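Bump. Still looking for Calpain catalytic domain-containing protein structure tokens.
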Amino acid sequence: MEYTLIEVYRKINNEILLAKECEKNGSLIDAMMLYDSISKGFQVAIDKESSTAQKKILALKVKEYRDLCKLFFEKSVSRENHYYINETRNVILNADSLKEKDPQKSLALYIKALDTLDFLILEGKDISQIQIAKKIMKETLSSAEIVKKNIKNIQQQTRDLIPKVSEMNISGPLNKKNVLMKSVPEDNFSNKTQKITKKLSDSEYLVALNTSYVNGVACVPWEDKDSNCYSTESNSYKDDRGKLLLSETQRKSFGSWKRLSKFYKDNFKFKVLKGDNITQDTVTDCSFVASLIVCIEHEIHHNTKLISNLLYPQNSNKEPIFNPSGKYIARLFINGFWRRVDIDDYVPVSQKGKLMCTYSTDDAFIIPLIEKAYLKVMGGYAFPGSNSSVDLHTQVDKEKTWKRIFEGFKKGELLITIATGEIGRNQRESLGLVPLHAYAVLDIVEIMSYRLVKVKNPWSQFSWKGKFSSLDSNVWNTKLSKALSYDPNSAGSRDNGIFWIDYDSIVEYFDGIHLNWNPELFEHKSINYFNWDAPNRITIDQNNISNNPQFRLRMNKGTVSGRVWLLLSKHVMTTETNSDYISLHMYKNEGDFELKRKGDVGTSLGVDETLRNESLSEYLILESGNAFRTGEYINSPHILMQMDLEEGSDISDYMLVVSQRDRDKSLYFSLSVYSTVEFEISSLQGYKYNEIVKSKWDNRLSGGNSLSPDYLNNPQFSLVFPSDTSMGETRFSGHIILETLFDYPVQIRVFRGGYLVTVASSINTVAQSGKYRHKLCSLKLDKLIESNYTILVSTYEPLLFGHFSLTVSMNSPFKLNQLPREGSGMRHKVMSGKWIVGVNSMGNKNNVNYHLNPKYSIKTSYPTYIFARLYVVGLDSNFPSLNLSVFESQKNNSLGTLVATSGPYSNIPQGAVIQKTLLKNGGSEYVIIPSSWEPDFEGEYTIHFYSDYQVEIEQL
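Sorry for the wait, here they are.
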């Protein structure tokens, strides 16, 4: 609901009165929440007020009531909980500020806050903390719902813009996925005209749809009909968004917006473009202009069309032509698709009547219009700058790099720009270089033992002053000048920004060499589009990558050597500061995979050492670690990973995992594969059936690892699959993930049965997660046949308390329920004792003096079910084999009929167990005997005895 300014002030006054009343009544939490609302109300008033003086007064009020809110918060909440509440409130404030600007990120932050509040309510130890968390949660839920509704409205507006079909004819580097690639995308590097038509999947269609707005500008996927935009109506078209945001430098000398057709008058004809003529003016888009220049030079030297065919309308020779209406459509490759960007021909002109944008000195009209189309998408002429391309290397081999770029450039397979980094003032003067600036590479030569590069500064001035510059008289002689058609004297007298520089100086003084290779170097190509939704809960551990986008890449095995390039591109939605640090990791799929992470704790039972994670095979990777290739995390929209394939290599199967640090919003990507050998790439989807349960280790359910006698007193869950025999034999596959906020080493173990596990052994173990790992562990279940299983989750040390989250994902429906702890609902008695050599340590039943072992009488009044466990106290290894048995009691104190037993003697740490057994004879007396297999064992023991009805137990 939108309030008027008067209504805002009325609401604030009412809340101030209520807050004072709450103070008097001692309702500190209510007062705190009201002061918070009051401060927000004053902030709303600031936005609505027109008076600058009044805004300043209101700003002081905002601070005053925020301070009051903080004061009452500190009075209401215990000090140890301040951190969590404050952090949550900061997240919510951040979400509030992004409601309009970035609703997707705002919603993600609200969800993150709600998850934290949920945790605080569950963990709350005092009523005030829980009350505050609940009140904040109520407000946050309301805000989140509003943002969610706004997002749906925006998505609907985008859907209205794009044809509502899941099949679009899209030209460009697209190929059908999941098959071996032989077709080629459109090749702008050559004169071939090839178009590939691809039917997008539903999910890929949504990627195209949801990335069709960049900075609020519509750039829908290109269709052939878009080229027909010619109109004879003079100056009839005016773009509502055509007057782009000007840079600060432009605004200082800006005169007016003028139609380019009026500016050029009768000279509005297509001209062959020349890189030498391109001049960057007051726009800080040197990276774009440098890229423009190298593309134009490629057109000249290799007879290609990289730039000149991007603007419409065109004539029969596919050359841009004058449109009387003033409307032009640029065809740009944006966010993984060729897209249309509509522009008018208005350009900024200075007060002196000069163009204030990039232009060609020969008045080629295409240059200002292509720049305008690009900058319209990028947010305007106030462009912050960027890299002209990204080709990331952590280490560079100087000689190999030269050979690579020299050969590639000469063959016309490579476009190059170079860029400077930070340069001190003194070096700027002595070297002639502009800091943080991109330059275009026009030519590369090897001549007279020199390795030289011809470079152009997009500003068309400020040339290099170092070695091989026009000032370097030591190197320029007649022979060299003639060979390069370069006159240093003429160049020195007329600085046009074009210069020669040696390769060694580039390596020394420039920060980066940006390479853009011809994709036609690779015979086989593929592109996959996908989205990565914002997390719907807090990511407890960054090592959990089960929900990361993942792909399986399979190559022809080792028949020939080859090269594969993987290009991960994040689709850009806004040109704000990029805080999305993304990466691409590669794992080998070798069929025998054991995850290892720093800090893993040894498994507790020797037999479990052999239980490893299943092969990666067709399955998702659940945890990070053991990557074959670990990518760098950078905030560039492009990540390039290169891999050489060795002839005869046995490894032909890889897993690709997209990763991001501190993920808090939905992102869209393209993953392009370029390969010299055939390949197949498949997107790995998560399992269809998923369930998350939250539980905790507490003082009753925290038994430690499998060496602990209390190991089975850990949380256990039944995993039950439907037993539909009509479908024949069904095999169940999936994975289980255990996460906790606490830095505990944890483990998952799966047993057969589906009921409470009372005996842990390798025989009834189906799978386990390996060594105990801090905060996060996982396991995979592959082709299970039985229908009932039990999941046990444990910490390495006993008595570690805290909440955890258990996620089960399967290929078939299932039911997941936490099982009651051992003896739950039964009466419980504990007997402790000691075997003493020569007194009562008489060994197993085959020994004559077995009856001299410790004995306890059990007297019952009614028939009752019993359950009992015996274990040794104080041992970490070399556990004795134990047995626990119940006999009917005879009048002469001899042992009668055996009624219940734990079975064969067993030496597991959890001891011996008598399963639930009915003592039928109410009013009878029984004898229970704990014993070890070997006589003369000395040690302490404990018996936990459970019964439905009250029984009397007495040591004999």
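The longest strand covers residues 438-447.

Edit: fixed formatting.
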